[in-house]
Each structure stands twice: as C-alpha cells, then as structure tokens.
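Recall the central idea of this unit: under ordinary conditions, the amino acid sequence of a chain determines the structure it adopts. In this exercise we apply that idea directly, starting from the sequence alone.
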Amino acid sequence: MSQVAAAPPNRKSRQPAFTPDPARWRILVVILASLFMSLVGVSIVNVALPSIQQGLQASQSDLQWVLSGYALMFGVVLVSAGRAGDIMGRGGLFLIGTVIFTLSSIASGLAPDAPWLNAARFVQGIGSGMLSPQGIGMIQQYFRGAERGRAFGYLGTVVGFSVAVGPVFGGLLIQLGGHDLGWRLTFLINVPIGIATIVLGFKWFPRPLLFFKKNPDLPAMQQGVLRSLDPIGAILLALAVLCILLPFVEARGSPATWLFLLAGLALIFIWVKWERRYARLGGSPMVDLDIFRIPSFTNGTTLMTLYFLGMTSVWVLVAMYAQLGAGKSALEAGLVGVPSALLSAYAADWAGKRIVRFGRRIVIAGLLLALVGLGLSILVVWLSDKGIISFWWLLLTLSFIGLAQGYVISPNQALTLAEVPLSYAGSSGAILQTGQRIGSSVGIAVITAAAFAALDATASWGAAIIIGMSVVALVVLVTLAVGIKDLLDRG
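Accordingly, the structure predicted from this sequence is:
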C-alpha cells in the first residue's frame, strides 16, 4: 500500500517533500479530545430521550428531531466545511467548530422548551460537521506511513471508547440528576471538554493553523478564496445531501417526503456537471472528481457506506430488543454494548499499528468477524426468546462485532485516503464521512422497517430482531465483496 499521497490521474502537480512536524502528537491530542466530545455528545443523547420527553413535555415529533436535526446539519455541512479547511486552513475552522459545538451544548442543556432544544441541536450539528473533517484532514496533513496508521488507530480507539461510555454515563447522570436535571447534564458534560480543547488548541497548534490562510498547494491563479471555495458547488451539494437524508430521518412522516429523494439524486447529477464545468473553466472545484479514479478511494468509500448502512442498525436493534423484548432498563441496554465497544477501541489501536503490513486484509478479517458476530447474535436471540439461555449471552456475541468495528472503520479510513492529494484532504475525508451518514440513515430506516414488518406479522420481538439482523448480514456480505475487490485491485 502506498503511504505517500499520490495525485489522481492526469494531475501534473507533485506533493512537496514531507517533514514530520514535532508538534504533531500534541495536535493529535487536541483533535481526539474534540472528536471524543462530539461522539459522546451523540451516543449519550440516545438514552436521554425519555427524560427529555418528560422534562420538556416534548412530543414524539420533537424527540425525533432531537436526533434528526443534528444528523441532518452534520451531513449537510461536512463536505463544504472540509473544503473550506483545505483552502483557508484547518486549525482555525477546527477550533471555530469546537466553539460552536460547546456553546450549543450549553444552549441545549439550558433549553426551556422543545423548540429551543431542537434549534440548539441544529447548531450543534453544524459545529460537529465543521470540526470533524478538519480533524481527519489534519491527521492526513501531519502524519505519513506507519504513523498515519497509528494516528487513525488512536482515532478508532476514541470512537470505541466514546460509544462505550456515552450510554452508560448518560444513564448514570439521569439516575443521579433525575428526569429534569439529568438529561440537561448529558449536554452540559460537553462544556468542560470543549473549553479544555479550545485552550489546548490555542496553546499547542502551530501559529499558521490558528488563522485563515490561502492553501499553498493550489495554483496561483486559483488563490481567490471565494472562487476556490466554489460557493455554487457547495450550495448544490448541501441541498442534495439534505434532500437525500430528509426522507430517511423523517421516515414516519408524509409519503410525499420521499419526493425529496428524487430531488436529491437530480441535484447530485447537476452538482457533478457543475464541478466538471467549473474545473474546465480553471476554477478550483469543491471536490476534485478525479479522486474517484483512484480505485482505493472509490472502493473504500463504497465499502464504508455499505458497512454503515448495515452495521449501524445493529445497535438500534439490540436496544429495541433489550428494552421492548427482554424488558431491560435503559442502563442495562447501554451496558450490553460495553464489552463490544471496549474491544472495538482495542482492535482499532492494534490494527492501526499493523495497517502498513497487512493492508486491506485487516478490513476483510473484520468483515468476517462481523458475520460471525451477527450469526451468533441471531442464535442467542432465538434461544433467549424461547427461554433456553439468558439475554446476557449477547455480551459475548456482540464482542465479535466490536472487534469487527475496530478492524474495519479506522483501517479503512487510512487505506481509503492514503493516495488522495493533501490539497483535498479535508473534502475527501468529508466525502467518506458523508457516505457514512447517508449509509447510517438509509440503513436504520430500511432495516428497522423490516424488523417492524416482521413484528407486525409475528407479534414476536425475537423474530423481528432476527429478520433485522439477517438483513444486516446480507449487507455485510456485499461489503465483503467490495473489500475483496479492493484487495485484488491493489495486487
């Protein structure tokens, strides 16, 4: 696997020689702290929804938008924010995103009613969408070779740990603070982490990272900032992502909302035409479409979209089965995923240190482990539903899925972005993340719909979860085929 960023076909520019920055590990600490805050902020909210409903007298629609509003805005701003970081400097936008996320966490925690909370969650999604691609771009910018694999491994460890502690910590805060104060603490807990991240960023980031600047990797004729940001391309893509995501996050709304999906696909077509025309006219397009000629990027982005389309739904299914099928509490439902998340953190670190040696084979091994975990979990649900074994055997079977996540997500990120030019590091990483968001939204809508259809037909939560996990397994099989294709493409 090549670890030096290579240009897409037909690109004459060469990447400058790389000299490791002595501050790179401190920069990584700041990046991981902020991403940990945003990830915990997502996972912790899921267990707080019943308390939010009681504390604010919120409707089911209000609760849906507590989650959906954040997800929508996060997906909409990702690629635009990533490209802005490529052009104007990633460090400054990273800290601005962190400030926005922290302030909106305060606004969420102090919300007097549901509309206020939903507005704050929209803003929180914008902040997270701004900081996330900058973090990925800075890892690409400051690390190469085996060190880049280690850095992405540490990122995977943070992802796994945040997924593990978020629901459990949220349950404890709600238990300690009660139904009114407890859910507010799940937002306010982000504030000290955000403040610490901002302070360390100003202290540890190299000075050029803290200020907007023109990207030296772009040709001189393209140095006009507004022109380089490609505002028309940014608006078209943002609208396209919004239209594609909206029907899935609002899946229980009017059937007419599915017309937005057609509009989103049409906007994607228009956006591609615009980007090609803009490049022909000598502009700097929002996304260099030549990166899709790099097999590792195209295969890796497809793999990650499919993986999130399937595997994200596993935890939704488990949470439903734990509380509605097995009669467990929200805290118990959170605890069942802890071993899996901790093993995911360990596996990500292990894989990150070996990604240069084993490459795509690590990802393929992870997908095979996911299939093993899904098969065993289906068996446990079937036997538990018959009263033969305990529900808690899922602690063991879901651990295989945790190992799979560690072997798939961060290693695939490193492999997918390895040959992308540094001048498009932020926007290409954001494309990868946008694929994850679209995959998650589509998967949760489709797979939970299949589970609920099975529930209506059988009146059995066990049967519903088995059907849902079987659909996930089919998606993972397709994902495995993409991984094998990428391995063969790499020779």
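Residues 20-215+225-230 form a domain with the Growth Hormone; Chain: A; fold (CATH 1.20.1250.20).
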